[in-house]
């Protein structure tokens, strides 16, 4: 078992602590949190061992799980890598692309593993249809949330939209050619609602919308490709695949058949992939343990996290 320690015991940090504790692939050693009163409370109420310094925690583990505010990711990661530790680092990977690239260099130089917490890659609805998504040419995503003061220290692009940016970059095997975007700060000092359009060199276009001032929650993505439409609801963990094929000469009474202006007939049929029941955060942590133990590439690499941050930064620069 890999000895693991968590930096940061806020809302998400406590979830990581609980899951690492129950995982059979990690031995949870303890945690560090800069807020001493919160740290003492977590230790007293939940029973996790509190270390009074980052250095002491890092020295005691094999894997450092960084769940601190984004502004501190870079320094925490540098410290962990300098002591020869593997790092799991929450999204966004760092505050700037330059910081992310430096972390990648340090990790490679020290022959260590790193993974970024883009948890939607492990969403069971996305996993159920991932292999059906082939060369999409138009993608539309909506990620809407009710207002919550937590996370408003960064633009909604880094808070919410970056999830969809990572998903799109993992699917579209082409470079981003142009980016246009707009954002509006309504309650916060940074944009609370944003829309971005990504155009890729292969012709694919992605339209992304994110808001943290909505009256209802929504986390949906729609993928349009030759002869297929695929939708993923990341919130309800449901998906839908609608495909088209050449219509049979003698369609059945209940077959859905469309005919275009040229007289070509296509049959529409629905595929309902089975969605497995999983805990996405536990899965991302445990697959990282597998990557370390088997000396393999993590599912969400630091390169992936860096590229998602790069696109997110370019979107923000459009505002």
Automatic annotation (TrEMBL):
<dbReference type="InterPro" id="IPR055170">
    <property type="entry name" value="GFO_IDH_MocA-like_dom"/>
</dbReference>
<dbReference type="Pfam" id="PF01408">
    <property type="entry name" value="GFO_IDH_MocA"/>
</dbReference>
<protein>
    <submittedName>
        <fullName>Oxidoreductase</fullName>
    </submittedName>
</protein>
<dbReference type="GO" id="GO:0000166">
    <property type="term" value="F:nucleotide binding"/>
</dbReference>
<dbReference type="Pfam" id="PF22725">
    <property type="entry name" value="GFO_IDH_MocA_C3"/>
</dbReference>
<feature type="domain" description="Gfo/Idh/MocA-like oxidoreductase N-terminal">
    <location>
        <begin position="3"/>
        <end position="118"/>
    </location>
</feature>
<feature type="domain" description="GFO/IDH/MocA-like oxidoreductase">
    <location>
        <begin position="156"/>
        <end position="216"/>
    </location>
</feature>
<dbReference type="InterPro" id="IPR000683">
    <property type="entry name" value="Gfo/Idh/MocA-like_OxRdtase_N"/>
</dbReference>
<dbReference type="InterPro" id="IPR051450">
    <property type="entry name" value="Gfo/Idh/MocA_Oxidoreductases"/>
</dbReference>
<dbReference type="InterPro" id="IPR036291">
    <property type="entry name" value="NAD(P)-bd_dom_sf"/>
</dbReference>
